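Table S2 (continued). Query chain:
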Amino acid sequence: MALQAQDLVTMSFTKGLDPQYLELLAKYGHEVNFEPGTYILKEGEPADQFYLIQQGRVALGTFISGRGFTTIQTIGDDDVLGWSWLIPPHRWRFSALVILPTQVICFDGQRLREACEADHSFGYAIHQRVALILGKRLEETRKRLEL
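Corresponding output:
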């Protein structure tokens, strides 16, 4: 079954987004399920997608020599996974490891970048939302460092 705009309206990332932009997002998205122990993305690899987590739990982290995968943050239901698809050089800056069974909506980042370039109002709306996510993640990381 194809993804529909109404499948996106309850997600925090898309809340308040113009209906025509919801239609555009739906056009480039599909649902995917991941099992625990699966890497959704790996640091350094090409970043051509982004994900809205419908349900589940994912560890964001990095590989540290001698320690292996090290969790920086854990995200879950209604969170966004991946912003590197939007920012050159379009390579993942972190890895994402599935902790609990996870259902996501996966978007074609390359096609969305093209859509952002073709329609600057759409691009601005998407960039604003990604900037909010980056700010939130930086704030959460800062709080962890204070502990």
